[in-house]
Specification:
This protein is an alpha+beta fold and 69 residues long. It has helices spanning 22-32, 52-68, and strands at 2-8, 13-19, 37-43, 49-51. α1 crosses α2 (52-68). The longest helix is centred in the last third of the chain and has 17 residues, at 52-68.
Length: 69
Amino acid sequence: MFTLSFYDLQNRRDLTRTFDRRSEALSFADDLKHRKCLVLTLRFPDGSTVGSTEIAAMIREMARHKRQA
């Protein structure tokens, strides 16, 4: 399971959401930029985490692969 942590600026609260696949988590994180939310971390099934800079890089990489396909 991939757990995405983010902060809702409008309602001022920390939220988390869990996904089965990395691509689902990254797509959701990409959508959050349109909703006044800050993506904080993505936790991988092995327990490791990455921050917003790394998440943004993964989203760009995923978009690049979709364009090439």
